[in-house]
Automatic annotation (TrEMBL):
UniProt cross-references to SUPFAM superfamilies, sorted A to Z: L-aspartase-like
Keyword annotations: Amino-acid biosynthesis, Arginine biosynthesis, Cytoplasm, Lyase
Organism (species): Alicyclobacillus acidocaldarius subsp. acidocaldarius (strain ATCC 27009 / DSM 446 / BCRC 14685 / JCM 5260 / KCTC 1825 / NBRC 15652 / NCIMB 11725 / NRRL B-14509 / 104-IA)
This protein's GO CC annotations: cytosol
Name listed for the protein in its UniProt record: Argininosuccinate lyase
Taxonomic lineage from the root: Bacteria, Bacillati, Bacillota, Bacilli, Bacillales
Occurrences of domain Argininosuccinate lyase C-terminal (ranges): 363-431
InterPro entries (alphabetical): Arg_succ_lyase_C, Argininosuccinate_lyase, Fumarase/histidase_N, Fumarate_lyase_CS, Fumarate_lyase_fam, Fumarate_lyase_N, L-Aspartase-like
């Protein structure tokens, strides 16, 4: 018997049933549906819409269903379509006809909107915890490697040397921005839709504030049509998931590069790497690769929901049921990605010895020789030209700038003296960038302190 079967005389076609049912994926809303229904029933009792003993019986029944759900003892039925009707059927089996009064002054349209708000609120908390976990991992690795210098790139061509800590901290700032966006999203989710009923409100004297308060909301949807058709907060959730994945994917890509023998900056811990079934020597960065790869599905879910919403007339349409799988999958993809990236970062070994030789034959100190000439009075554009010629000289000779003799240097500019070699020293090159936010150890120490404060204080 269908809960809405009154006006129907034929059974639903099996394929239609399977096509329209959502229980296979919305069953995870069960605990939220119960919480929302308890708040609704309590309000119906307090406002006199239901008799106190009726509300009590319903609430007790819902609580016992929740206990059975947590014990894995409930069975959902496809014929009941979705989680809401499964709950109502289970409740009716348990407490009898009084259960049929629960749906007074309510529709599945505002009910599902409430469930998704409650779920999304928890999902944001999980994302926030994951972001924080990765921030802390990056901060701790940065802190332990303040002395390690790596090549910095533009166009993936060596540009200027930077502290490895400086490079890692760049990701911490991205994640701190993610955190702030997630907190703003939490504020958006804080609006209670129940009481909108199907779309127009209800004829019963409900108390929406009471329900909101019990469920921890501080605001109400002030338009019943908006309440049942708004999915902006899920777009926000998906956008946040997509942005976090963008950051994870960039870090993942770098870790793939860094762990290659060509870079040789890091070695992944055995616990966070995988092998090859044919090549015995391999240690593959599967986790960062999958994080990079799974970014695609998260972007897809954002695009998917945008497309579902585009052109939907008000108010509820069944299309809106399509909001769920993508949102669930996005959160289920991002949360473990954050945890795994934190573990991968925390356990990787930084190959200090190998990095010490990273600058043996490179030109990432060229800007510093130009700056040296500027300090001697040459306009920067001319200094750039002089050093460019010196780079060409060194390349022709198979060496780098420090490998040129003083005569060879002076042949390009008489302003160059012995002290130019000091300016070319890689540690000096890094140390010299003391501008706020720059890569000098002193500046990075300040940055680290600020990042830690932001991570622990936000
Ligand atoms: N399973 C539905 C969904 O997720 C619940 C709302 C159904 N409402 C309706 N009028 N058919 O959107």
């Amino acid at each position: 018997m269908k809960l809405w079967g009154g006006r129907f005389s034929e059974d639903t076609n099996q394929l239609v049933l399977e096509y329209t049912a959502s229980i296979s994926f919305d069953k995870r809303l069960f605990p939220y549906d119960i919480r929302g229904s308890i708040a609704h029933a309590r309000m119906l009792g307090q406002t006199g819409i239901l008799a106190p003993h009726e509300a009590r019986a319903i609430i007790d029944g819902l609580e016992s269903l929740l206990a059975d759900y947590e014990a894995g003892k409930l069975e959902f039925r496809l014929e009941d379509e979705d989680v809401h009707m499964n709950v109502e059927r289970l409740l009716t089996e348990r407490i009898g006809d009084v259960a049929k009064k629960l749906h007074t002054a309510r529709s599945r349209n505002d009910q599902v909107a409430l469930d998704m708000h409650l779920w999304a609120r928890d999902a944001v908390d999980e994302l926030l915890a994951g972001v924080k976990r990765l921030e802390r991992a990056l901060v701790s690795v940065a802190e332990r490697h303040l002395d390690v210098i790596v090549p910095g790139f533009t166009h993936l061509q060596r540009a200027q040397p930077v502290l490895f800590a400086h490079h890692l901290l760049a990701y911490v700032w991205m994640l701190l921005r993610d955190e702030r966006r997630l907190l703003a999203l939490k504020d958006e989710i804080d609006r209670m839709p129940l009481g909108a009923a199907a779309l127009a409100g209800t004829t019963f004297p409900i108390d929406r504030e009471m329900v909101a308060e019990e469920l921890g909301f501080t605001r109400l949807y002030e338009n019943s049509m908006d309440a049942v058709s708004d999915r902006d907060y899920l777009l926000g959730l998906l956008f946040n998931c997509a942005t976090v994945m963008t950051h994870l994917s960039r870090l993942a890509e770098e870790m793939v590069l860094w762990s290659s023998e060509e870079f040789g900056w890091i070695e992944l811990s055995d616990a966070y790497a995988t092998g090859s079934s044919i090549m015995p020597q391999k240690k593959n960065p599967d986790v960062p690769e999958l994080v990079r790869g799974k970014t695609g599905r998260v972007y897809g879910h954002l695009m998917g929901l945008l497309t579902v919403l585009k052109g939907l007339p008000l108010a509820y349409n069944k299309d809106l049921q399509e909001d769920k799988e993508g949102a669930f999958d996005a959160v289920d993809t991002v949360v473990p990605a954050l945890e795994l990236m934190a573990g991968t970062v925390e356990t990787m070994k930084v190959r200090r010895e190998r990095l010490q030789h990273a600058f043996a034959r490179d030109f990432s100190n060229a800007t510093d020789l130009a700056d040296y000439l500027v300090r001697k009075g040459l306009p920067f554009r001319e200094a750039h030209e002089v050093v460019g010629r010196l780079v060409a000289d060194a390349l022709a000779k198979g060496t780098n700038l420090a490998g040129l003799s003083l005569e060879e240097m002076r042949a390009r500019s008489p302003l160059i003296d012995e002290d130019a070699y000091e300016a070319l020293d890689i540690a000096r090159v890094v140390e010299a960038r003391q501008s706020r936010g720059g890569t000098a150890p002193s500046a990075v120490r300040l940055q680290l302190a600020l990042a830690k404060e932001a991570v622990e204080g936000q």
